[in-house]
Write a structure and sequence with these properties.
The protein has about 220 residues and is of the alpha+beta class. The protein has helices spanning about 5-10, 20-30, 40-55, 70-90, 95-110, 140-160, and strands at about 65-70, 130-135, 160-165, 185-195. It is globular, with a radius of gyration of 18 Å.
Length: about 220
Amino acid sequence: MNNNISELVEIKQTDKICISDVLKKIFERRSVRKYSTKEVTKDLIEQILAAGKMAPSAMNKQPWRFYVMLNKEDINLFSKEILKAGLKSIPQMGIKNLINTIVSGISQLSHGIDFFKDKDPIFHGAPVVIFITAPKYDEWASLDIGMCSQNMMLAAKSLGIDSCPIGFGKFVEKTPHYSKLGIPLSEQVHLAIIFGYGEESPLNPKRTNHNVFYK
């Protein structure tokens, strides 16, 4: 049992509170960056998408649209193109975004990922890539998609499927083959999420526990 769950069980044992499956999946989910070649069935993908669609959204607009990529050749192609587009965009970034990008790159290296040598440096060999869009100029879309994405990743975990959110996925808009996705000009890519059967078991990153304030 995961350490976080064990601690929660210990804390609640005297109250005889049973840890639900939902809580278990929240504590167990990790961002996985190494996948097997095993395919994820369309039925499972549809269940993951259905969970995402159940997320709350501002004024119930449900702004999200999903573009599912399953073709391995296309995934590898877009992976390399997104990396190039992202690196080209660095000089135009503000200092804050530039620092975040550098930190992200260092994090990838710590996972044993070499952007310049990996065949699939962005999507890490995952068999499913889902780009999530929303209408341009929607003020609340980022928050809505964040909640939608978490639903999807937790649903995937409950189905035995691993995942990882890919912020670099937004650079797909700057790739030469972007039109292949069929995304209208009226929409903006906010995030990509990869799904598949993981071939690694990442450790639980240390969590900050001094950030709750009761008044």
